[in-house]
Amino acid sequence: MDELCDLKYNCTRRHFLSRTSLGIGSAALASMLNPLSAMAGSRPDDPMGGILSKPHFTPRIRRVIYLFQSGGPSHLDLFDYKPTLARMNGEQLPESVRKGQRLTGMTAHQKSFPLAGSRFNFSSHGKSGRLVSELLPYTSQIVDELCFINSMYTEAINHDPAITFFQTGSQQTGRPSIGSWLSYGLGSENDNLPTFCVLLSRSNDFDQPLYSRLWGNGFLPSLHQGVQFRSGKDPVLYLNNPPGVKQPTRRRMLDHLRELHQRQHERVMDPEINSRIAQYEMAYRMQTSVPVTMDVSEEPDHVFDLYGEAARIPGTFAANCLLARRLAERDVRFIQLYHQGWDQHANLPREISVLAKDTDQPSAALVMDLKQRGLLDDTLVIWGGEFGRTNYSQGKLTADNYGRDHHPRCFTIWMAGGGVKKGFSFGQTDEFGYNIARDPVHVHDFQATLLHLLGIDHERFTFRHQGRRYRLTDVHGHVVRAILT
Amino acid sequence: MKKSTYWRIAPFVIVGLALLFRIFINPADPPNAALFIGRFHSMIVHFPIGLLLLAVLLEVLARAFRIERFSSTIKLLLLAGAAGAVAAVLAGLYLEMAPGYEADTLFWHKRLGIGIAILSFIAYGVRLLDGQPGTTVYRVYAGVLVVLCSFLMVGGHLGSVLTHGSGYMTRYMPQTFRSMLGLGSPAQGWAVRMATAEDAEVYSDLVQPILDSRCISCHNAGQQRGQLALDTPEGIEKGGGDGPVLVAGRSSESEIMRRILLPPDHEGHMPPEGKDPLTVAEAALIRWWIDEGASFDQKVAEVTPSPLVEQIFAGLELSERETGIFALEIAAADSTAIQAARAAGMAVTSLGENEPFLQVRCASASDCLNVEQVAALGLIASQVAWLNLGRTEVADSALAVLATLPHLTRLHLESTSVSDEALVHLSELQYLEYLNLYDTSVSDSSVQYLSMLPSLQSLFLWETDVTSEGVESLQRALPDAEIVLGWTLPSVDEDTTSAP
Q: Which of A209, A215, B311, B396 is the most buried (most CB within 10 A)?
């Protein structure tokens, strides 16, 4: 059958069954009166435009800045102090600890699993007395603002499935990512910028790649996909007018295109056409709003003192943190940063220092900058990777060098902002930093908690697709109430 | 037109109008009138059920005993039942907009209801033909009645599930029948009841009832599955065939907790497969009792409750505790007032499904709090909890409206031209918790107004003219508030790490 006809029937049937059940007449009437709400899942009569016209309960935060540390930062060298590892440095990982747990193909063949204590010193900071590694001197200064989860764990053992799991709730690809869910559910508070913005940075050129599907909309309408902001002349690709095209010409072109689209929509009733119209209009508005947002030349010097001089160089993590604050000020709902390079299989001590240096000051600066502007109260900043790293050395353990393999069974992340406790640490790993001793937090628990803070009951926030309902947390997840204020 | 024609058209006009009205309503934000009509559903719905079932009953009797004179009664009952069903469906279409109905159940209830309305008309139509036994008409009629009957049963049951919840019928059913349906013992509201009593004991008032209802049917002195009896303190202390059942003070090492917390499909999970697992509250109470020493005579008042247990005690099970404005009983705003505020150029959104409160911001930065908007705010004054005027060109004179918003908890005024004098309008706001004045020209003379805000928790004064002396005197007046004057992160020497 003709694919377009197929769509048409699909749509009529869905209308007939789910909207009215009263007959074709009222079905047609309903779709004429309010085609957008009937089809695209966005509500033009509502300023926020989310599918949830009311949150399930009072939200604690309105936006999220997720500083994703891609590659798997070593919890053992940054946050989770394990004197036992230093004492037993070089001794074999006891089988009573590993319990036959699977390893990656990179170390499963190793004949020896020498425990590797961290080469870095830990000291306690702030009123909360949180132990943090000397690698993070700036983060150490703000521990009283942070909520650490020491007992995160995940199901995936490799980068892509693990990041996909964190972002979409499934290791397999194809589900919407967190930002898309939020855009779909809560809508936008700024008509001139996308609800879900993505910024990338990296510390070296040969790390694990990232894929645009990590900020993809999955089965949700495509206007909810994340928009990547790049450094350089064109922050958003294909946004500027081509040479020779002036703004009025652009406007006329869009008006005519819209007419054509609407005709096509009347014929085939494909909701994606409405998404397309909305995206063209958003792109038009972004022609003005994006350059203003990305232009940091007006920022005073003290801002660059706070974020570090690297913030002046476009494309660095520091610059992206500064942009994240600017996007947050403009009420962008979900701001996703990725920093690549945390995958220290070998030469960990040298390489992690580079990564820590690139990310430590900007992360701490972002939290404090949001705080002094009064934005931290309704923002959640999240700092963390997709998994932790092993307590044994990958490759040869020498006096001043070691590597660490992927370790999904425990790792540390931190959050700061509205609704979560300050200067608080939750969960505990065993003395080997290998298994969780108390209060495990699964990735789905993390996601359920995140939605909870935004006023969403993760069990009731679903999307029907291919005959069943889907949620971000699949069929799992418990809100971690112990970290909430 | 003859008078009787009017009467024939009238029902169709009414049904048509009701449908048309329904289509124009935004289901996410139904007006009160719609819900008023909707609530008649629960009243009307019983008539068609009774009438149609009676028609079926009479039909069965008529066929069984060959009573011809029932015929006209049955036709009347079917017609009346059909009309009642249409009325019930119409009211139901309004009622479904009310929040809180479980979507899956509603989905089927709605479709069955509409099916009943259609089928009863078909039944009436076919009945008019007076088919005799053996004819096709007769068979069709019988078939329609059977389907109609089953729809009535299932649809009616789903309706009761929607209204009363799924356990309504089985809640007080004798356990024999419950077991036949595969149900365990019903949960008690004991935790809530007991927590209020001062002299309640942890074991006998909280823990034992859980064991009684969930464990002792298999683990008692008479029937000791796994050589374990949980009906007496001695039995609990003795343990079972595999050793002690609990380690006082250490719930994580206690066998009973391990069994309770195993995945429900695990063969070691207790209660065993087929019985409901313990609820979160029940498991939390047992864990708390063990962690506090598993004593058999401690009083609730003598032990510190964990946050989770405190929530259970509060009778709120695991929901949020309400404080501040959320503890107040405020009526929801009129939907026309909200529409008016939106039409005036403000973004108005609800704080939550069951909350009357609203968050409001100006849609346009250059035209914030104009005369129309101030008037519109007046209509939703008691519901406005969060107001965002930050980064707008709001005029000082317009801020007088703030004094009329008694339940304001969060107010954004950052990067505006707000002056010290305008802050006098805030002094009555007893619930204001968050005030953002960053990047404004307020100065130390604002302190007199700010210090009158009893609930203030977060105050942002970075990049204003307020001096540190001003902050000091403010802090004395508001010892619990966090007053933010900006931050620097002391820079760190290049190489702090001891490693290479």
A: A215
Distances from the Cα of A273 to the Cα of A223, A263, A267, A373, angstroms: 10, 10, 11, 40
B318·A481 Cβ contact <8 A = yes
**Contact between chains at B499 and A120 (C-beta distance less than 8 A):** yes
Do A22 and B351 count as a contact with CB atoms less than 8 A apart?
Answer: no
For B453-500, the pLDDT digits (tens) are 989 999 999 999 999 999 999 999 999 899 999 887 788 876 656 554
pLDDT tens sequence across B49-98 = 999 999 999 989 988 888 888 888 999 999 999 999 999 999 998 888 87
Domain ranges of chain B: 3-164, 190-316, 335-484
What ipTM goes with this model?
0.86
Burial A136-167 (b: 16+ CB within 10 A, else e): bbbbbbbbebbbbbbbbbbebbbbbbbbbbbb
Q: Do A371 and B484 touch (CB under 8 A)?
A: yes
CB-based contact A55 B110, cutoff 8 Å: no
**Backbone dihedral angles phi then psi of residue A414, each to the nearest 5 degrees:** -130, 155
Looking at residue B243, what DSSP letter applies? B
pLDDT at B2: 66
Mean pLDDT of B134-162: 89
Question: Which residues of chain A are within 8 Å of residue B308 when distances are taken between CB atoms?
Answer: 481-482
Can you tell me the distance from the alpha carbon of A78 to that of A142, in angstroms, rounded to the nearest whole number?
15
Task: Please tell me if residue A438 touches chain B, with a CB cutoff of 8 Å.
Answer: yes
More confident residue, A227 or B33: A227
Identity of residue B403 = A
DSSP state of A292: H
Q: What is the pLDDT of residues A90-135, one digit of tens each?
A: 999 999 999 988 899 899 899 999 999 999 999 999 999 999 999 9
Q: State which amino acid sits at residue B242.
A: D
Domains and CATH numbers, chain A: 55-239+299-483 (3.40.720)
Residues 441-460 of B with CB under 8 A from A: 458, 460
- CB contact at 8 A, B148 and B116: yes
Average pLDDT over residues B162-186: 67
Which of B349, B359, B386, B498 should be substituted to probe chain A, the one whose Cβ sees the most A Cβ atoms within 10 Å? Answer: B349
The Cα–Cα gap between B191 and B209 comes to 9
Which of B308, B486, B497 minimises the CB distance to A353? Answer: B497
Q: What is the pLDDT of residue A257?
A: 94
- Percentage helix, strand, coil, to 5, in chain B? 50, 5, 40
Contact check, Cβ <8 Å, A121/B498: yes
With an 8 Å Cβ cutoff, are B489 and A54 in contact? no
- DSSP sequence for B66-87: T-GGGHHHHHHHHHHHHHHHHH
pLDDT tens across A405-440, in order?
Answer: 999 999 999 999 999 999 999 999 999 999 999 899
Task: Identify residue B256 by its one-letter amino acid code.
Answer: I
Verify whether the Cβ–Cβ distance A374 to B357 is below 8 Å.
no
Q: B271: cis peptide before it, omega within 30°?
A: yes
Domain B335-484: CATH architecture, name and number where available = Alpha-Beta Horseshoe (3.80)
**A299 touches B: beta carbon within 8 Å:** no
Q: Does A19 touch chain B (CB under 8 A)?
A: no
Contact A286, A327 (CB under 8 A): no
Compute CA distances B182 → B168, B185, B219, B331, whole Å: 15, 10, 19, 43
The verdict on B323 touching A (C-beta cutoff 8 Å) is: no
Q: Say how far apart CA A435 and CA A429 lie, in whole Å.
A: 6
Residue of B492, B493, B495 to mutate, interface with A, max A Cβ within 10 Å: B492
Of B318, B352, B498, the CB nearest to A455: B352
